[in-house]
Amino acid sequence: MSLGIVFLSEVFGTAMLTLLGCGVVANVALKGTKGNNGGFLMVTWGWGIAVFAGVFVAAKSGAHLNPAVTLGLLVNGKAEYAPGVAVDFASTLTYFGGELLGAFLGAVVSWLAHKQHFDAEPVAANKLGVFSTGPAIRALPWNLVTEIIGTFVLVFVILTFGGTPSGLGPLAVALLVVGIGVSLGGPTGYAINPARDLGPRIAHAVLPIKGKGSSDWAYSWIPVAGPLIGGTLAGLVALWVPIIATTAK
Fold it and tell me: 232 and 72 in contact (C-beta within 8 Å)?
């Protein structure tokens, strides 16, 4: 498979992820929508379904949709990211680039779908919250720990039971994301994906959103560094799972 196909697959899949994921947050957070004040559980299920759709769209490239997943596969020593896609420097950058661009584009389309409600929303923080995550209690070291743990769970389960998200199955990954959201998502909004947070945050910064306020770049490194660390740790720890299973027998 060509890297061009991999790039487009990840772009479209990650765009679908953030279109639906940012969309459910907009539906809950913005003034006057039909889903306004729908609650955190609505958000977690919306993101789970967003993952479900994104994995189907990007199945050809292995549906990483997330640099932390790509990095987890890399450090785990996988030979291929997807059938016919060797793990090397060029393919790694291709995945990263497709994921980030797709996340940006999906957020832009989500903004277009909710344009009038962005204009009507008086609270700048609610507008930023559609695009990117933020902590319930701002304590950066602990916010980082939360993102590391949440992403570790995501990548470790994927590596342990399925290899890649498409191998594990779209529904299984979607339910895993819902589970992480309801169990670990409260402190930081569970970015668990550097592209999912950074791409939409860039969109928030460049779009002509009325009264949008700050993009909170001071916090932006947390949902990037935390997932990358968590994905790396998951890839390394998952190397021991076959050893432990063999020893148990």
Answer: yes
